[in-house]
Amino acid sequence: MGFTTVERSRPDALFTAVYRGLFAPSFPPGELGSEASLADALRDGSADLFAVVDDAGAPVAAAFGEWSAHARVQLLTYLAVGPAARGGGIGGRLLREAVGAWAARRDPCLVVAEIEDPRAPAHDAHGDPRRRLAFYEAAGAQVLDVPYFQPGFGGPGHRVLGMLLLVLHAAPQLRHGDAVDGEALRTFMEDYLEAVEGAVTADAATTALLEALDRPGGVPMGPWRPGQ
Ligand SMILES: CC(C)(COP(=O)(O)OP(=O)(O)OC[C@H]1O[C@@H](n2cnc3c(N)ncnc32)[C@H](O)[C@@H]1OP(=O)(O)O)[C@@H](O)C(=O)NCCC(=O)NCCS
């Protein structure tokens, strides 16, 4: 069977099939935005979707990303491969294609992704967090040294705590040795919190995260260390 990568910048039948058939089963509900919010992001031009389709046009893998022009940060919001196709190289290929396209189109930019703590338990449908980190590390990802959490759909009480923020690409202008530009990341984080939670609140977790982004010299990145 042949596989082709296609791109969508508007919601359509393929988007619906990706959301319902790939994303909804692959992510815990608290980590996945609503179908309407992803469709809106495609419509307003801030998001794009890459999908790998089989010969019949059915999606077997997809990557959805959101661009913050203000911060010059591209978030790989969701990447999923259908369970039957996992482990066959499709996810790695799609990740390279999507990151390569974003890095070229939006130069200079940072491309980041958020993943669960690798010590979290594995789940049949959602996958194994340790192997997921290994997947991204094999693609060259570096872990930012920040106490990251995914903003909560519905407010701060719904945050996913203890996540990692990865750097998949950093343009030379936004990179300072083994650190990346904290200002770009802070702008990205504030915009992200406002969009998802409605405001940037002054709670302890937000303050710790923003302080970590404000460190002089940028935000250090490197391999994941337990306890990070
Ligand atoms: C993580 C994922 C995108 C990888 O795509 P893939 O096509 O399976 O990966 P590739 O074949 O290119 O690379 C194989 C590597 O992917 C990772 N992987 C494969 N299956 C996995 C699973 N069920 N859970 C987590 N990681 C997995 C492993 O690191 C694997 O290497 P290994 O076989 O040496 O352990 C895919 O497994 C998936 O969709 N998982 C569920 C959803 C998810 O975790 N999305 C990413 C979070 S944003």
UniProtKB/TrEMBL annotation:
Q: Which GO terms describe its molecular function?
A: acyltransferase activity, transferring groups other than amino-acyl groups
Q: Which UniProt keywords apply?
A: Transferase
* Every N-acetyltransferase domain range: 4-166
Matching entries from Gene3D superfamilies are given as: 3.40.630.30
**Protein name as it appears in the record:** Acetyltransferase (GNAT) family protein
Q: Which species is listed as the source?
A: Glycomyces sambucus
Q: What is the lineage of its organism?
A: Bacteria, Bacillati, Actinomycetota, Actinomycetes, Glycomycetales
